[in-house]
## 1
Amino acid sequence: MLKKLAFRLTTVGFCLAAAVIFMSTTDHNTTNAADAPAAAPNPLLAKWVGPYGGIPPFDKVKVADFKPALEAAMAENLKEIDAIANNKAAPTFENTYVALERSGDTLNRVQTIFGIWGANLNTAEFQPVQAEMQPKLAAHFDKITQNAALFKRLQAVYNSPAKKRLTKEQQRLVAVVYDGFVHNGAALNADKKPKLADVNQQLASLYTKFNQNLQGEESELNVLIDKESDLAGLPQSLKDAAAEAAKSKGKTGWMIRNTRSSTDPFLTYADNRKLREKVWKMYVSRGDNGDARDNNENIKQILKLRVERARLFGLPTHAHWILQQKMAKTPENAMKLMEGVWPAAVARVHEEVADMQALANKNGDKIKIEPWDYRYYMEKVRKERYDLDENQIKPYLQLDKMREAMMWVAGQLFNFNFKKLNGIPVFNPDMVVYEVTNKITGAPVGLWYFDPYARDGKDSGAWMNQYRNQSRVEGNVTTIVSNNANFVKGKPGEPVLISWDDATTMFHEFGHALHGLSSNVTYPTLSGTNVATDYVEFPSQLLEHWVATPEVLNRFAVHYQTGKPIPKELVDKIKKAATFNQGFATVEYLASALMDMKIHLAGDANIDPRKFEKDELGKLGMPKELVMRHRLPQFRHIFASDDYSAGYYSYLWSDVLKADAYTAFTEAGGPYDQKVATRLRKYVFTVGNTIDPADGFRLFRGRDPKVEALMIERGFPVTK
Ligand SMILES: [Zn+2]
């Protein structure tokens, strides 16, 4: 997942103001300042200072500073916008589009840190500030989008014959910014604009509420186990992690937290079927417990408001409005791809269930496979069929070593060098920071922050966040990115062992980070990962492939006790089992993606989320032995912001590009082929949004993407 600033409702970046520092004092009551000490400046408003073109002042952030800082930064931003809109000179690319690129620097910095707190440190103190400020930020961006004088100038340049004389990147900036303004309502009739702003503010409040409910359930609900015998089947490392989790909450015994990193391994290994059911139910019921944190009513309201907004644009549904700005272009194109893959995936699930049932029968277990059995028996089938056990792999996958592995791959494919830094301010002591430079030229590339562990107030899952975009419009600005995950800490001093899936996820998020770090563009709006969501997952998913390369495994997949590299027989077994369980993985994902599109294509039908989910899954022929990867009441991607709404299909769309792109490497001789790597950097990783993604892919691959590689990768039959 790529985490954007959740409150940025507009996709237009308002970045990088000129060097205007607006120092706000929060002390409005000091009338006679003659003898009074000067009020301390709000540290959030100050320019980022220190090395690397300035770094985020995480050590100085106080929650109480957010509100005054955001208010001051919004006021400053509006002044900048007014100056651009009311410029006496005739509108030009320079005095309108570039001026806009230079504006909003302070707000961008404050918002970035505000967003980081929202996703990582969402405490009881922070929550009311977030609830208050999100709608205000939504209103702020609508004020800019709806500034008629500004839009008139943007339009004048957009329609001017002089546009043809601009460089390709400049013309692209004009198109992207102009389309963004139109998409967000700049061209609407005056009578519709206040309605749009009102809808956006209501949505911002609901998104915040949705996410806070979910965070509450993930932080506070858990399953506490007091008998060690109930942990039978679990490897020692998981028992230790569960004991640490209990200890961190002041409890004795073993705790299974309400997060995927905690529940998935338990469901895979725990022999106690009753407890598996309990843990499974806790996790899939997040946001759906009929209590104060239940998200069903929020979803109903979000859906209604989204339809209302689409109607303002004369569009039938929210899905149509969202897809305007995607590579897929229409909901029909996205549906066609998903529906094309679905039957093969469901057929494979039926085979997988039959295999598991046969094994359970053979073992005399006297059960019928239920959703809380899937991971458990799947693991047993894997062991029987491929003589492969996740527990054999795990001792070779140390979190620290996998981090080194990613950096080594970045050196091979991107010429990046990583050096650990000390003394850089972080918002949690577990966070580490690396300087990234070009291995050949030594030129600075940026900074990479890594925050690996789960804690209360942090979103579950894993993501990348862009703290600062690369650009050259105001000097040479380098990228700052983070990767965040939810690994469970092991015993102090012992390495954290992770699963194969976790290692793959790490490479995925690191792929987003490399996309941001590779950026080589002029304008921040077009920088790095500022591309459509159905394209942005392509670079990240592509990186996943390098985990399994022998070059990585031999160097970094070393046993945590013996230091010996993972044996070749084990690697061969992993490869042989590569398409194992693809039925489960594809169906649990696709069910969520189809539901996302269907619920947003339903128009203004009065939707009861629980009933809708049940009915539509029935119509789809969803196998009853598994559940959607994200049930609606916990579907953060689509209800905690607009970003992946009617857009969860993006992962499959990007996967088609990814699978096809990887074959470019294998056809050329291997994953480290330098010619293909150079093309990949040139046309995909460095260009940001300066070219149309379809053109970028074509330049890299020499043709349009084909879906066959994806079907082969997942072990599904290829039909012409
Ligand atoms: Zn992603």
## 2
Amino acid sequence: MRVSKVLKAMLGFGREVVILAVEVVEGTRPRLVVEVRPKRRRRGRCGRCGGFASWFDNGDGVRSWRHLDAGFATVEVVALARRVDCRACGPTVAALPWARHDSAFSRAFEDLVVHDAIIGNKAAAAHRYGISWRAVNNTCVRVATEALDRVDLLDGLVAVAIDEVKYKKGHKYLTVVCDHVTGKVVWAAKGRSKDTVGEFFDALGSRAGQLEFVTADGATWITDVVALRAPDATVCLDTFHVIGWATKALDEVRRAEWNKLRQAGAAKAAKEFKGLRFLLRRNWANLTMGQREVIWALEAANRRTFRAFQLKEELADIFALPLIQARRALDDWLAYASRSKLAPFVKLARTIRSYRASIEATIEWRLTNGIAESNNASIGRIRANARGFHDPQAFITMIMLDRAGLAPSLPWTAE
Ligand SMILES: [Zn+2]
């Protein structure tokens, strides 16, 4: 087999790339320098817009791109960066089969860097490939921008979830919009206010008329804008948030009971009680037999907390019922909660009454929490991997790459 054929396969080049020369530069890490040229075509393409364009000049001469490593060696692709005269963009470097426009890395190398930055973090990717953190960051931005230019994520939306995500301590939030149909994030921006939601509807334009369902957490900064900008859409209250309210009410009851025990001087009982906090938050279905026994024992030890736990569990169960049964069960639940003498649940019953139409729409149309929940979990993982984000735009870029499906597949995977 000819060496050039081996080399071509190893570097992942297809018929569109011609290898002219190869050289190894010795060093602590050997460098494989591969001189190439694109296969000649009658007309070139503009590197900026991709349109056909006629030849202009040889540009600034030879350029080089870091390519996928070959074993111990790093690989450098070297070629003349010819220019074309694009009607739309003017004289521009011609599109090359191995690299994105304006990058010192090959496309395949960038795809791997982005892949590593998503599953790990940018610092880990920088270390792995021996490039700077800034270079990793720029690559993520370049890849995300290119992908966003190609697809319109806001096209054909009929059901969306609008939610907020924390990006930094001190009440710094992003607003994130997910598509209920695909489960993907389709839009994200800094801030959580009526203005932020307004920006989403600005981007959506007349397509807002096609929106049939919007799920949200009941915050008026979302629902008010939706009522104004998409008046025909049914607003559903995300079940995830309603159950979250109940969990919070349960926590308040537990804390009040714990304080009572402490003030009564029952230190040991108070300590045991404090340990219940995380157990109570979990779903009954996910508890082990031993954990269930702890909660059963509560019925005798602290009836008020036990009742609060039951109320939380029953509310969660209602969301799994068909609408007619759910309506009846919700009536019963509201009556029971209102008479429970547990102040946080009396208040919760009032809140739920005021959102009742939205809650019933959620049950009827089955727009469950799954999407918001799984996206929030993944977004939380991105934030944790990066050990937080100072720049909201950098966070948005990573969210879009990972959760909007913009991240490129691995270079050797056929698209
Ligand atoms: Zn152009």
